[in-house]
Amino acid sequence: MNKIRMTNGSELPLEMHKVKIVQKIALKPIERRLEAIKEAGNNTFMLNNRDIFLDMLTDSGVNAMSDRQQAAMLLADDSYAGSESFYRLEASVKKVFEKKYFLPAHQGRACEHLLSRVLIKQGDIVPMNFHFTTTRAHIRLQGGDILEIPNDEALKLKSVHPFKGSLDIDKLKQAFKDHGERIPFVRLEAGTNLIGGQPISLQNIKETHAVCKQHGVPLMLDASLLQDNLFFIKTREAEYKDKSVLEICNEVARNVDIIYFSARKFGNGRGGGICLNDDAVYEKLRELIPLFEGYVTYGGMSVKEMEAIAVGIEETMDMDMISQGPGFIKYMADELIKAGVPVVTPAGGLGCHLDAGSFLPHIKGEEFPAASLASALYIISGVRGMERGTMSEERNADGSEGVSAIELVRLAMPRRVFTMSQINFAIDRIAWLFKNRDIIGGLRWKEEPKILRFFNGKLEPLNDWQERLVQKFKQDFEDSL
Ligand SMILES: *Cc1c(COP(=O)(O)O)cnc(C)c1O
Question: Residues of the chain with pLDDT > 90: what percent?
Fold first, then answer.
């Protein structure tokens, strides 16, 4: 999308699509929202959708489909083996990634499972720019481990670095010196999820690839969030500003050896897949598909979803489409910064990230600042975000709380889903909450599961701060929801 400048000089992230199908949502009264968050144990994962106004938990499998995707789904060819839908998807994937082979899988983590099974052995180490939760779990499951070597800016919440997701090349060279034989492949994650949807530069991909080649080790790309990353390469990396999105995507692909993706994000559907040229690795992976996923011409995906993804990937090669998410996220971050609210900068893809540690400096890590903020935000707005802080960590070996170095509330921006007025509403309520942040208090465990506790653990407030927050809200907004 070309930049749209308004009369007053400001820029507007103008939508290059119109709405054809809508889903009704409701903003329940604040009294119900208070009840609902208590029932959910102050864990936004445990809220029921019917109590949520804007669901900003994740961008996974909840992006809006286009009319062309919906139309393609009607053409789906139902067949266990040899479905036309698979061949259409394969052609679409090969056009953007230009690899000899494409293998289907039911979602991103399934690709990680199969790739780890084939490529990882006990004691292996995988250098990467940053881990993703399911990636790390699958590598460890096979007896390997990860080595994170992002650049020095990656973990700074406030930064102006255009490519915070890039890998530190010197540290990669050192890793080969230190671990040599134990490195089966190097992994780059596009649109680095856990550090705030931050991109890698194409320059960095090329440099990483050169080092991998020197050592005869393949470079793997997790392309789940590649659409945002392609947008940032085109807009932030001068050399590529006149290249088309497809040309940039092809060049990314030529500089990596194995590509996998979650089509819950890349392709706007629900599924995934792996692309590569290596015959031997392909043969090993192919044997596993019928065992874990489904026959090799659907890999656990429905034929309808394969059609939708085929068209979704084609549509991803269009700036009008891939600029919407980053445009809205930047708008939201800029407006929040104007209101003094601490957010992760520069704005990335995926979502807007509130820096809960700076938002609530009076709440100790052991009292879950990010979870408290996510809970407070839901109460006063019906907006559901995701806690990414101490609650998402694990306890230390000695049983003490594993306090996280950074406390974030992620407000995901599912693509083409929300309108500008909905985003303005969220901004307004977050700014109000920031002014009233002193009212927000901490939380403590009520029910703490042993494994992945953030998914279904329950917390309770340390005192009556939530009731006081509701009181102040009603004073300020009177009869407004
Ligand atoms: C979502 C995601 C995955 C996992 O994909 P699923 O389809 O949810 O299994 C892997 N890597 C990254 C970077 C992701 O964002």
Answer: 94
Total domain count, the chain: 2
303 and 394 share a domain? no
CA-based torsion, 180, 155, 254, 111: positive or negative? positive
325 has pLDDT over 90: yes
Please tell me the distance between residue 218's alpha carbon and the centre of ligand 1 in angstroms.
21
**Is ligand 1 within 6 A of the CB of residue 109?**
yes
Assess whether the C-beta atom of 272 lies below 6 angstroms from ligand 1: yes
Is the beta carbon of 262 within 6 A of some atom in ligand 1? yes
Residue holding tokens 């692909």?
A: 253
Same domain, 193 and 77: yes
Which of residues 319, 337, 372 is at a domain's end?
319
Q: Which atom of ligand 1 is nearest to the CA of 190?
A: 13
Which atom of ligand 1 is nearest the CA belonging to 263? 7
Distance 103 CA to ligand 1 centre (A): 17
348 lines ligand 1 (CB under 6 A): no
Measured in residues, the chain has a length of 481
Range of the domain at 9: 3-59+321-477
Whether 354 and 276 map to the same domain: the answer is no
Long-range CB contacts for residues 463-470, cutoff 8 Å, separation at least 24: 465/439, 465/440, 465/441, 466/34, 466/37, 466/38, 466/375, 466/376, 466/379, 467/34, 468/439, 469/376, 469/379, 469/380, 469/436, 469/439, 469/440, 470/30, 470/31, 470/34, 470/379
pLDDT tops 70 at residue 2:
no
CA of 176 relative to ligand 1 center, distance in Å: 27
450/365 same-domain check = yes
Q: For residue 256, give the CATH number of its domain.
A: 3.40.640.10
What are the pLDDT digits (tens) for 401-413? 989 989 999 999 9
Single residue among 319, 349, 371 that ends a domain in this structure? 319
Q: Which residues contact 112 (CB under 8 A, 6 or more apart)?
A: 134, 135, 138, 139, 260
For ligand 1, say whether the CB of 225 is within 6 Å of any of its atoms. Answer: yes
Q: How far is the CA of 410 from the centre of ligand 1 (A)?
A: 16
89 and 222 co-located in one domain: yes
| 97 Cβ below 6 A of ligand 1 | no
pLDDT digits (tens, 9 = 90+) for 285-305: 999 999 999 999 999 999 999
Residues 278 and 334 in one domain: no
Q: What is the pLDDT of residues 113-139, one digit of tens each?
A: 999 999 999 999 999 999 998 999 999
| Percent of the chain's residues with pLDDT above 70 | 100
Are residues 95 and 207 located together in one domain of the fold?
Answer: yes
Active centre residues (catalytic): 80, 132-133, 222, 265, 388, 454
